[in-house]
Amino acid sequence: RVKTRRIFDVSRAVDERTATWPGDTRFSRRAVMRIADGCSCNVTTITMSLHTGSHADAPSHYIEGAPATHELDLAKYLGPCRVITPKSRAALEISDVEGLDLAMEERLLVRSPVPLGDDEWLDDFFSCSAAAADLFARAPLKLLGLETPSMDPMTSKELRAHKTLHRAGVAILESLDLSSAPDGRYELIALPLKL
């Protein structure tokens, strides 16, 4: 008997309604060529901030001169992961991962306690506490992903969680949609665009 494998797409839909960071360029698309107009094919141009929808945060996003997306180690974005639901409401805390053997976890995807639709924005979104970032930096974690738009609070200017994770070599995924993936272990395939 062959066991079927369920695949969960944890990326958010990207269209004109997609919520963006306040002040970022919103998604838009324009038909450049259309078969309906007599052209040989359909061609569309899109414009958007690279921080739109589900995305990998390249270190150059928050540290001048750090690696850009095309320089990321793709191996960090492929492999075993665990999806968890935290008990904390404001930020991921050390207490949310008690009971997990972090030495055995390579990638951790964390559900937001307040689920958001693709077109919803919340200024006080769930983030990663400095203490949790420090803990993950000491663990052999390769990747941390959140359902919210940033590892740090919206008002943060220091971006401490981002920088702590970067120094430890932990890749960052943001704005995931874990609504269809129950807590548990999975195989993650989340290759960033080569830009």
Topology:
Elements: E1 28-33, E2 43-47, E3 55-56, E4 78-84, E5 91-92, E6 107-110, E7 127-128, H1 130-138, E8 143-146, H2 160-167, E9 171-174, E10 184-189
Characterization of this structure:
- The longest helix has 9 residues, at 130-138.
- The N and C termini lie far apart (43 Å).
- This protein is mostly beta strands and 195 residues long.
- The chain has a 6-stranded mixed beta sheet, with helices on one face. Strands 1-2 form a two-stranded antiparallel ribbon.
- The protein is globular.
- Helix content is 9%, strand content 22%.
- It has helices spanning 130-138, 160-167, and strands at residues 28-33, 43-47, 55-56, 78-84, 91-92, 107-110, 127-128, 143-146, 171-174, 184-189.
- 31% of the residues are buried.
